[in-house]
Amino acid sequence: MSIATATRRIGRQRRLVTGLVITVVITVIAIIGPWLAPYGENEIVGKPFTMEGSWLGTDYLGQDVWSRVLAGGGSILVISVLATVLGMVLGIIIGVVAAYSGGWLDEAIMRLNDVALAFPQILLALLVLTAVDQPAAWMIVLLVGFSHAPRVARVARGMALGIVSRDFVHSAEALGESRLRVIVAEVLPNMNAPLLAEAGLRLTYSIGMVAGIGFLGFAANPGAADWGQMINENRLALLVLPWGVLAPVIVIGIFTVGTNLMADGIAQLARRGE
Fold first, then answer.
1. In terms of residue numbers, what domain contains 164?
2. What CATH number is attached to the domain comprising 146?
3. Count of domains in the chain?
4. In this structure, is residue 1 part of a structural domain?
5. Transmembrane segments in this chain: where (predicted)?
6. Is the Cβ–Cβ distance between 125 and 142 less than 8 Å?
7. Helical segments of the chain, H only
8. What pLDDT, in 10s, does the model give residues 125-176?
9. pLDDT, tens digit (0-9, with 9 covering 90-100), for 33-69
């Protein structure tokens, strides 16, 4: 398939294109936002909860809300992407190995996976985070990524079960190919589109979970601007000056809508076999 043909087919998927545009715009804002902000993220520009500073007013300390919104997306973006990648890699390995192995090993892996699925994601993260004085960014990445792995594993196993029994897999085995090569060269390439859709969905959940962790007071850097943490910091003055809460909520909402639309668009492409 040529690049031009692939581009035309993707262009016909309005959800995918719309989601991609939204996600790219928010990502660019999160990356270059600190350089566009009129004030520093911790700079006091006026009295708390007044319309001083720029057009969104000030927060609970008198810091400019707009500047903190522009500076607060980088941490959520990086942690969410890394956690999604980690969860996808672990889940795919677990699911494909279980499906390809079969028998008692498949049964043992999936029953352990069911036990992991029984724990609510956010509750498990909070249980660990409350045991440390100050959570580091890598710790949040691990917690969110590990919480995604069982769900990805179940999806990956379901897809792999329909592939490992096909003739081209048996042919590769008959030619003496190693199990690892069969998985990498024969099984995984036939799972690309559904796994991309699942990755978009996992990214959506990662964004919500990382923001939720920040809202509950477990941000990696309490002094830095963070969209989730901003909601918690300014919620008591929601009726006085709501922008300290509404601005990060709106940005997070738009970001999750964009990633959801991307996931839906990729899933539609996969169903149509394009």
1. 73-219
2. 1.10.3720.10
3. 1
4. no
5. 16-37, 76-100, 199-220, 240-263
6. no
7. 3-11, 14-36, 65-71, 73-101, 103-117, 121-129, 137-161, 167-174, 179-182, 192-215, 227-234, 243-272
8. 888 888 887 788 899 999 999 999 999 999 999 999 888 888 888 788 788 7
9. 999 999 998 899 999 999 987 889 999 999 999 999 9
